[in-house]
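Look over this record before class:
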Amino acid sequence: MSFSGVDSDTYPGGHISTEPRINDRIRVPEVRLVGPAGEQVGIVATADALRLARDQDLDLVEVAAQARPPVAKLMDYGKFKYEAAQKARESRRNQTNTVIKEMKLRPKIDDHDYETKKGHVVRFLKGGDKVKITIMFRGREQSRPELGFNLLKRLAEDVSEFGFVESSPKQDGRNMLMVIGPTRKKTEAKVEVKAERDRRAAERKAEVEAEHRELAEHRANSTPSTHKKRGPADNMDPDIDV
């Protein structure tokens, strides 16, 4: 069966459009009209509202189709869509996805490995990411859960400047888990990382410029000075008559 000529926005079996109805697609007899500055005009015939839109070189946009009568607003719809897209793009750019890093430790980890793992955890937290700490028990270690608990407690205390315990230690089969959340938001961490990167770049640029100046001064000082070439007359005694 063909449905050509049927408005897909209104026919229940057709495509459902997310775009609002504008201008001649608004087929209700009257609308509650809102002016371009947000002022309430009142209930007017749709034909009159369309005429006002054309007179002001604007569009009539249905902004509340479920109202009785529907609410329509006078606006520049092309500009409205552009600004909405810009805002959505900016929102996506500022949106931060929660990232959970994982760090695995053994209950009897030595001090050197512990310091290395702790450094990674601090780096993750400073970057604004959560960290899941997993203590892996093997063999007889499973009968000593306090080893894992004490290790997690020690780690939480050591990194307390950068994170907090979001999920307390709990046993999960042969493993013991704990989640540490960052004290700063990821957006704040990104701003600080960028500022630090810019600072280092500025310092490096200043160092390079200083090296160039020093090299230029060295070359200038090491260039031999030009002297007037002495001729035979310059070697003669001024008291001797020629």
About this structure: The chain is about 40% helix and 20% strand.
